[in-house]
Amino acid sequence: MPPHLFRFDRSQKIMLNPYQVLGVAPNATDEEIKKAYRNLSRKFHPDANINNPNKEKAEERFKEVQQAYNQIMQERQQGSGGYYTGGFGQSRQYRSTGDQYAGNQESVELQAAANYIRNRYFQEALNVLNRMQERNAQWYYYSAAANAGLGNNVTAKQMAEMAVRMEPGNMQYRQLQKQLEYGGTWYADMGQNYGMPYQNFSSFCFSLFLINFCCSCC
Amino acid sequence: MFGYIKANRQQLSEKDAAVYQSYYCGLCQELKSRFGKKGQILLNYDITFLILVLTGLYEVDERQKEFLCALHPLKKRIQRRNVITQYAADMNVLLSAKNFEDDWIDDHSYAKKALYTLFQKDYERIREKYPRQERAVAEYLKKLSFAERSGEENVDAVAGLTGEMLGEIFAWKEEDVWADELRCLGFYMGKFIYLMDAYEDAQDDAKHHRYNVLNCMACDLEEDFETFSKLLLTSMMAECAKSFERLPILLHADICRNILYSGVWTQYEYLRLKQKSRKKKKADAASSLSV
After folding, report:
1. Calpha distance A186→A182 (Å, rounded)
2. What is the value of ipTM here, to two decimals?
3. CB-CB: which of B9, B183, B243 is closest to A5?
4. Hey, is the C-beta of A28 within 8 angstroms of any chain B C-beta?
5. Stated pTM of the model
6. Considering B124, B187, B215, B221, which has the largest number of Cβ atoms within 10 A of its Cβ?
């Protein structure tokens, strides 16, 4: 995956009061958050502040509003804490797990991979991991995280599964695996309001064929 | 590639259905005005989804106009067009024309060569206007051909090619703050489309010993294949939907959600029903023989 695709700001720190920045309550609905974001970002957008004597301040606020919105949406989707977030290249604070392997020769390379992942250089992390001969549960954990970051969600799931299989007691591995599986339940829940196509058809019949055919024409 | 991204009409409200249709009509009219009648045959709902997402995100000014459709002359229709419709029409031609060229090169289909020649000038114009997107489509076809010919077994690697390509199409303006999130949405949608295509062609490809990444999976029973395929497809749509939900889209969000959570499964459900009835027929035939 070409690294230029991921231009998320790697230096962003966690905001302490994103809801305050947007001027909404912490229990505001997603719709209210989006409305608040749209209003504020429109107000502070650089294009709307060309003649503003305080345009640098406006740009600062614009970036703040952007960061607050992104943080809230990511937290809401994944729950706070935990390592990987949905999509790819999304920023999250990484919790260090290197301590258990102190003194192990391999840990140098695993630490390098962990650093790359923390800073969202996922391809570099994979390059380091793929050069390693020994592949323990930690290796599979990092591989899962790096692959998830690159959008290789199928491979990421398989790697996480391996990590859990090799070390079933490790809660961090289980948590990552759950986050990677989590998509399915979340998606099904969201889709409940919409039902499935052809759900009133118990079997295939000519009228179903006609509907499918006609729907594609108009 | 086209045909999977559409709405579940039965679940759309009358108002939403009218809005959805008006963007589709708008695309049709835009294709006609920029590319003539030959542009109109490229019309599809997938590109209409692109229009809905970008319009919802950027809330650009738009024109609504009544018009008389040549195919549906009994009642006046409403078309909605905006600057995003123009972009989408260009992308529509870009994707279609490149596919025609590809089919001509791969299968020596004269019909496709004729179609490609029809759009060649338009394609050159679009290439000049949108070099990033054109490069993405051209690279994609090359890489996909290579991956399929070398029998790539890694699902992410091969489906990801369609994803990368579609991501560039969704990222309308590269310097915009939402470009990367749009890329993400397009990326997982592209992977879904590729895998849906593979799922639809799996049996046929197996019979004719053609490459199909889903057939590369070690599946002993048919049930495993079905379960795993459904899991893969759901995984892609889940990530795609999550990306959509992260975007601050309010306008037409309900129509987009109908498509993302329900409509995209239309062809899949259709195929499953067909399979079920085929199996039932076989079982009935077998049991009547044994009587």
Report:
1. 6
2. 0.89
3. B183
4. no
5. 0.90
6. B187
